[in-house]
Amino acid sequence: MLYYLFKYLTEIGVPGARLMDYITFRSGVAVVLSLFIAMVFGRKIIERLQMMQVGEIIRNLGLEGQMKKTGTPTMGGIIIIVATLVPCLLIGNLSNIYMLLMIIATVWLGSLGFADDYLKIKRHNKDGMSGKFKIVGQVGLGLIVGLTMMLSDDIVIRQNHEVVNATSQEVEQVIYESQNIKAPQTTIPFVKENNFDYAWLTQWMGDNAETGGWILFIIVTIFVITATSNGANLTDGLDGLATGCSAIIAVALAIMAYLGGSIIYSSYLNIMYIPGSEELVVFSSAFIGALVGFLWYNAYPAQVFMGDTGSLTLGGIIAVLAILIHKELLIPLLCAIFFVEDVSVMIQVAYFKYTKKRTGEGKRVFKMTPLHHHFQKAGNAGISALIQRPLQAIPESKIVTRFWIIGILLAVTTFVTLKIR
User: Fold this and answer.
1) What is the pLDDT of residues 324-351, one digit of tens each?
2) CA 400 – CA 403 distance, rounded (Å)
């Protein structure tokens, strides 16, 4: 809204109105505004949730300090969603396809998570929405994003090529094609020019190879959104864990969006240039501010939990951001914490079922999953887990801080891989 007002003021010559044309200025405003909304109005939302007795239902899993959290307000993800969307609606370019897709993704998964939390509260247990319905919702968003990227004329890329000195074999400069193109390409580490075309895997389709590449891209999009959203959902088990890890990832993606949306910085890093994607920096900035503001109340000991309203939305936003800037294949490294949490649950369930079928008694690999609970639970001789260490429970705040440190290292490593080729 304000974006278009300042556009008009620029046209009539009002001094200073052109500030809204700068991504850096609008991003800074987005951070400050979202942080303000999350911290000031977040308090009012928490008080409202308390009045409505929207408290978290806690099952006694034998974890230290766990039962003290009973009754803590949940569905706090509303704070993150509101604090993200309001700045985007005020200072975002709503004619930009990338901004529109991010707003749709936020509302879509926020609604899905809200419905899940509502059913849990209504039924007074942890059984909310059926897992099948969640998957359908996540797949639906994947189809929306993938098909839009395939069909929209506003989503294009400009390929980068290296000019190599024939004598020294050193790269003299990076040039870009003069025309924008539509292609199912993405960025991968460790290879020349960092470009990978999904159509390369469908060459056997002949003239339909590019269409086949887009279909493959849509399948990958669905998988990335589903896996990342569920991974963030599983990670949300300790105070501030999912919030802090998501903020670190969002900062990394915001930097990538800024670099990929600038032909100068894209050339320096030798990555594909994505016209129009710089608007994602504004969204990312609002998202980061909302997360930091929410962390004010969600840090240990938490005054509010985000619930599925927040955790499903966080993972979905991160996944869609990465897909729109063509960095979805870097997600397994950047979001490794989310995926390790996912995999730990799958390993635990699979091994338990296997051993129960073979011996009649189910055994575990970890003391408890998702993985963060493994470190939170003290080991003893009575636990049938293959991995006993640590034998002593690690304090919750220390586990969260260590996961944050790992998240920072993963983000740095993700950037480093782009220059190793």
Assistant:
1) 999 999 999 999 999 999 999 999 999 9
2) 5
Q: How far is CA 171 from CA 162, 166, 273, in A?
A: 6, 9, 18
Q: What is the pLDDT of residue 417?
A: 82
Helix (H, G, I), strand (E, B) or coil at 171: strand
**pLDDT digit string, tens, across residues 101-120:** 999 999 999 999 999 888 87
In a domain, 60, yes or no: yes
Strands (E) located in 112-255: 160-164, 171-176, 185-187, 195-197
Task: Give mean pLDDT, residues 303-309.
Answer: 89
pTM of the model: 0.91
Q: Which domain holds residue 35?
A: 2-158+196-325
How far is it, in rounded angstroms, from Cα 51 to Cα 80?
20
Whether residue 370 lies inside any domain: the answer is: no
Helix (H) or strand (E) holding 301: none
d(C-alpha 230, C-alpha 175), whole Å:
39
Beta strands in 177-280 (DSSP E): 185-187, 195-197
